[in-house]
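Deliverable D4.2, example record:
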Amino acid sequence: MKNIVALYGVPRSGTSWLGQILDSCPDVAYRYQPLFSYRFKNRITTEDTKEEMERFFQELYEEKEDAFLNQADKRESGMYPDFEKKSLCPSVLAYKEVRYLYTIPLLLEKFSRERLKIVGIVRNPCDVLESWINAPSEYKPEWDIFKEWNFAERKNEYRPENYYGYYKWKEYIKMTADMQIKYPDAFFRVRYEDLVKDAEESAEKIFSFLEIPFDAQTKNFILESQSRTEENAYSVYREKRKDRLRKVYLPEEIREKIIKDLKEFDAAAELGYQ
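Output generated by the structure prediction step:
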């Protein structure tokens, strides 16, 4: 392991798709949500030294059999692909998280001038919320969206590592704006909407920033991921990246409240979300 890539984003913002784009690089060893896994639960904290974080990364890199970290069930079902790798020991460790987003500044503070880079994906909050309420294992039908859309108390359970709801979306967006200014050589922000519009061009920019090769396997996966659809909320295959047929839509009253609030949120203006 020579370099480390971390992919962060709030839930339902496109991290699964972008994560598989990263995994398609033959020189990447990819792991899924390690800080949420049984194996590495809560391994990065505000009290950790750089050496302790290094030890975590090395253990994560060496852990190749854990079914959760490798999402074995999704690969077996066809929701995720299997990629060819250059060797049993790729030089880049990559992982994704949709929880524990507060670890972003902790990592950048200690590693920003060395071998770690972070990609932060962002998405329009109305689309994030609508995708959330249509995810069967993440939003229960008996919940009241008028009570949940802002703080998501039922889902977040007041745990700081959870980032559901509009309030936590704003917290994350402000953080990404700050990190992009403070660590321009180590933090790269990408809009989900740009990835959908031209996935190949966006991926090439990301790979160039991360200094990893963009080859035929990545190009072929991007093409395939947008050429067929697997009707599952967690599949990375969606024809032309169109939204799936929604069973539930975000109420217009909530949408209007968000749009009104965004007009006073400067960090959203530069993303085109106002």
